[in-house]
Amino acid sequence: MNSPQDSSRPQAPVPQQVSLVAEARVPTEHGTFTMKLFKEEPSGLEHVALVMGNVKGSALVRVHSECMTGDVFGSLRCDCGPQLHFALDEIGKQGSGIVLYLRQEGRGIGLINKLKAYALQDEGLDTVEANLRLGFPADLRNFEVAAQMLSQLGVDSVRLMTNNPRKVATLEKHGVKVVERVPVRSQSQSENHHYLATKALKLGHHMDWLPEYIPPKSEDDGPSKLG
C-alpha cells in the first residue's frame, strides 16, 4: 500500500487563488488610479489591478499580460505597448475601468525564454514555432486568475478590450459575462508584421481592421460589437 507521502502517486492540482495584499493611489497622465496588488498562490506571482472610478457590476476592462520589452522599452517586435496605452487612454476618457496586469511574461514562458524565442524568430521562425522549438506550448498564460481578481473587485460583467477570443471564453467560463468585445487596434509595421499575422492566423486573434490578417471564421469567438 502506498503511503500518503508516496511521491509516485498522482497528485491533484493545487487550485490557484488570489488575495488582495496592498493598494495605493497612483496618479498617471491618463488620470488617477488605485493600484491593487493581488498575490497568487501557490505560485507567489504578484498581479496588479489598476482601477479608476466606480467599477462595481460592469466595467471597461483590459486583461494585459506583462511584456517588459514592449510595455517598458517600447519594442517594435510586438503590439503590447500600444495595446496597454490604448486601454489606459480609453479608461481615462471614460473616467472608470480596470487594467489587470498579469505577471505572465512572454505568453507565460518568462523573459529568458522569450529572448531565446526572439533569437529563433530572427532565424526565420514565427512566434508560435519558436515557442514549440523551445519545448513550450504556443501560449502558457492563465486567464482564470483575471476572473478571480474581477470577482474580488465586485465586477461580474465587462466590456473587454481585447482581440483574443481565448480571454473572452475564459472569463465567461469562470463567471464573468463579456457584454462587449472592444477591439484594440494597432498598426502593422515592418518589425511586427509577421508577429501580428501569426497571432491572427495561428492563434485566432481578431484583427479585422487589417484584412490580410483575418483568420477563418469560428463559432466560439464570443460576443463582439465593433466600434
Short description:
Helices cover 30% and strands 26% of the residues. The chain has helices at residues 68-72, 80-94, 110-122, 127-133, 144-152, 165-173, 193-203; strands at residues 17-28, 31-41, 46-52, 57-65, 97-102, 155-161, 177-182.
Describe the structure in your own words.
- The protein is of the alpha/beta class and 227 residues long.
- The chain has a single domain, classed as GTP cyclohydrolase II (Rossmann fold), CATH 3.40.50.10990.
- Helices cover 30% and strands 26% of the residues.
- It has seven helices and seven strands.
- It has helices at 68-72, 80-94, 110-122, 127-133, 144-152, 165-173, 193-203, and strands at residues 17-28, 31-41, 46-52, 57-65, 97-102, 155-161, 177-182.
- The protein has a seven-stranded mixed sheet, sandwiched between helices.
- Helix 3 (110-122) crosses helix 4.
- The longest helix has 15 residues, at 80-94.
- 33% of the residues are buried.
Protein traits:
7 helices; Rossmann fold; 227 residues; globular
